[in-house]
Amino acid sequence: MCGAFLYCSFFTVSAQEVAQNPLIHADVPDMSIIRRGDTYYMSSTTMHMSPGVPIMKSTDLTNWKLVNYAYDTLVDNDAMNLDNGEQTYGRGSWASSLRYHEGMYYLSTFAATSGMTHIYTTKDIENGPWEVHEFKPAYHDHTLFFEDGKIYMIWGAGELSMVELKEDLSGVKEETKHVLIKNATDPIGSNYILPAEGSQVFKHDGKFYLFNITWPRGGMRTVVVHRADQITGPYEGRVALQDKGVAQGGLIDTPDGDWYAYLFQDSGAVGRIPYLVPAEWKDGWPVLGVDGKVPETLNLPKNESIIPGIVHSDDFSREKGDPALPLVWQWNHNPNNDLWSVEERPGFLRLKTGRIDTAFIQAKNTLTQRTLGPVSSGTVKLDVSQMKAGDHAGLSVLQKKYGIIGVRSKADGKEIYMSKNAEDGGVIATLPFNQNEVFLKIECDFRDRTDKAYFYYSLDGQTWNELGSVLQMQYTLPHFMGYRFGLFNYAAETPGGWVDFDYFEIEDTIKHSQ
User: Fold this and answer.
1) Residue 83 · residue 333 · CB < 8 Å
2) Tens digit of pLDDT for each residue in 410-441?
3) Average of pLDDT values for 231-246?
4) Within 10 Å of residue 40's Cβ, how many Cβ atoms?
5) Smallest Cα–Cα separation from 359: which of 82, 90, 113?
6) What is the mean pLDDT of residues 192-203?
7) Where does 345-445 show beta strands of DSSP type E?
8) Within 13 Å and on the Cβ side, how many CA atoms surround 106?
9) pTM over 0.90
10) Considering only CA atoms, which of 91, 87, 93, 89 is closest in space to residue 45?
11) Cβ–Cβ < 8 Å for 163, 172
12) What is the per-residue pLDDT for 425?
């Protein structure tokens, strides 16, 4: 028999007709996946973005579509609001745990920004509403599990601990905390960069399996699995996968009984990208990979959903009953909802200024979507006729080392400008500009981790001109997120102006070649 790997000699479907790894070539880290019948649901991390903790849906494990978020607002404080010079880049909500138990969906996460553990519950994962449960402290990289009428939470790094939660999810039961595994990093030895973390626990054939990521010094990100007969332990561990740095995640089965590990890889500036790895059970352990390797193809339907399921173009036209913003959009930090609209000028996104900001990364209401690999471009058409002196508006690629192609208004007129983060010299190039409309484009090349961005403008939408210099994109831990396209408008001198975006177009092609 073929077994769970499904790599039989009679399998003749061409590689173009089956799924490819990576599963999604975009920033979708810290996945947690469950299956309900023939439908899969996946949560992920988007940290400082709002709304947060995206929920994606699939019926084949490879084609995913955003269907919901767990919250609109994680917390209302200066850091999450970009107020008073505060920010929470690289923090916000981290790795979530998605579960289903007795008719209820549970989505838990934690946040240094709030200092709390957050648990969101709903009976309808696609439509909500979500009920919010919050308590201190913030349990790092935790996993939820229901067993024998009890609710457990396992968390930690290196030393993994367990607590039992109260039935109403208002906190932990007193005197239930105990060390579950003293040194979960032990299977890779004592010389490591990253202690075992990212816990996800599963039950199979009466045994419990705890997945973690760890990183040996001089090696790569590694999957470690511990096994026990009881959820409370004792646990024995082993290395489960060490290939291409693909690690951190858990297990999922199909209705036909096939098994996969869902994991992700740090892939440079595009972010942390998901992989599926075939799994089979041998001697009571999950064995991951094909001869211990991450395969390039999978015997699953071809993955074709990143556009429009995960990212999507938008002409900002809305029919009655449509949401103001499709789920592909997220705000950088909490937005001010009084300062944006798709109704004031139908068919346009209006971004208004309401305060003075002197730095792009502190500006309110930057609206974002993921970039995607191996290449992608974002294009906007922008009406700048109502900008005030000191205003900056346009298109960006957002990370700590950001890049901008935009328009800035001055007392003596407007100019198109290209800018990088201050570490690379700030404004690189300018061009006088006297029209009311302009077209702006950024192309991103992530092939072989080239990680370069190119900036263009057009006065008619037909002829494109490159401006400024190439941005060497870099995934940095202070932002801890893959690059995102961002639509922005902020006032450096006088609030009250606005710009109108006619459309945003995202494509998985670029004209620039290596």
Assistant:
1) no
2) 999 999 999 998 656 688 999 999 999 999 99
3) 98
4) 20
5) 82
6) 98
7) 349-352, 367-370, 375-383, 391-398, 403-410, 413-420, 427-433, 437-445
8) 22
9) yes
10) 93
11) yes
12) 62
Structural domains in the chain, CATH included, are 1-29+182-288 (2.115.10.20), 31-138 (2.115.10.20), 309-507 (2.60.120.200)
pLDDT band at 1 (very low <50, low <70, confident <90, very high): very low
Token reading at 180? 């579950």
157-168: b or e for each residue (b if 16 or more CB lie within 10 Å)? bbebbbbbbeee
Residue 411 burial (CB count, 10 A): 8
Mean predicted lDDT score pLDDT of the chain = 95
CA–CA distance, 284 with 286 (Å, rounded to integer)? 7
Distance between CA 72 and CA 323 in Å, rounded? 14
pLDDT of amino acid 345: 98
Helix residue ranges per DSSP H, 67-167: 78-81
- Find out whether 40 and 59 touch, Cβ atoms under 8 Å: yes
pLDDT at 281 over 60: yes
Q: 3-state DSSP helix/strand/coil percent for the chain, to nearest 5?
A: 5, 50, 45
For residue 478, pLDDT over 60 is answered with yes
| Those residues with Cβ within 8 angstroms of residue 299's Cβ, 6 or more apart along the chain or in another chain | 6, 7, 11, 13, 18, 19
Question: Prior bond to 22 cis, omega within 30?
Answer: yes
Token readout for 83 is 């107020």
Residue 151 has pLDDT above 80, yes or no: yes
Query: Could you give the CA distance from residue 221 to residue 231 in angstroms, rounded to a whole number?
Result: 25
Tokens of 144: 């939820």
Q: Give the end-to-end CA distance of the chain in Å, rounded to a whole number.
A: 45
